Each structure stands twice: as structure tokens, then as C-alpha cells.
Amino acid sequence: MNKKLSTADRNAALIKLQGWKLVKGRNAITKTFQFKNFNATFSWMTAMALHAEKLDHHPEWFNVYNKVIVTLSTHDVSGISILDIKLANIMNNTK
Ligand code: HBI
Q1: What is the C-alpha to C-alpha distance for residues 69 and 32, in angstroms, rounded to an integer?
Q2: What is the structure's pLDDT at 2?
Q3: Where are the chain's structural domains?
Q4: Maximum distance among all alpha carbons in the chain?
Q5: 3 lines ligand 1 (CB under 6 A)
Q6: Parts of the chain with a pLDDT under 70
Q7: Structure confidence by residue, pLDDT tens digits, 23-46
Q8: What residue owns the CA closest to ligand 1's atom 16?
Q9: Which of 2, 51, 54, 56 to mutate to test the pocket of ligand 1 (most atoms within 8 A of CB)?
């Protein structure tokens, strides 16, 4: 079973994740991604969906045209786990 990160481990991981921040009032992290048009945006979302399936870890996200607001948390542990950090890194590195 995947484990919830301690506050210290979560904060240490978050410092290294460019653009990600904690969601107020919720144990989750968020980042807004922007692209040049809808085609680039949806192509990225498709690639991320395949990564999410491979990790068995799925984002909450909201898309309008060239913008995607991503929220990551691990429902199974009611918090942030290493899988959120992994997926956030993949998203940053594939942008
Ligand atoms: N995605 N974000 C997120 N959090 C989870 O806890 C999670 C998931 N995808 C699949 C998954 N858990 C499975 O372990 C089952 O709960 C279906």
C-alpha cells in the first residue's frame, strides 16, 4: 500500500517541484499549465493520461482551451504520496 508522506517529506519534495503549491484547506498540490493552443493542450493531456494509467494514479484536472489546472492527491491515503510527486515530475518534464 502506498504511504502518505509526512509533512516534512512532502515539503521537501514540493520545494523541488517547480510551479507546484499546496491547495489551501486540502492536502493536495496544484499547478496550472499553459500551452500554445488547444491541440498542444489536449495532446499533453493525452500523454499524461497514459502515464496516469501506467502509474495507476489519476489527476483531477480542469481544462479550458490552452489551460489545464491540475490537482494531485492520493485518495487512498487521504493525502500526498510519492505517486503524486512522481506524476507531478512527469508533468513538469513533459511540458
Ligand atoms: N488516483 N489520484 C489518485 N489517488 C488514488 O488514491 C488512486 C488513483 N488512481 C487509482 C487508485 N487510487 C487505485 O488504487 C484504486 O483506488 C482504484
Answers
A1: 4
A2: 86
A3: 7-94
A4: 39
A5: no
A6: none
A7: 999 999 999 999 999 999 999 999
A8: 76
A9: 56
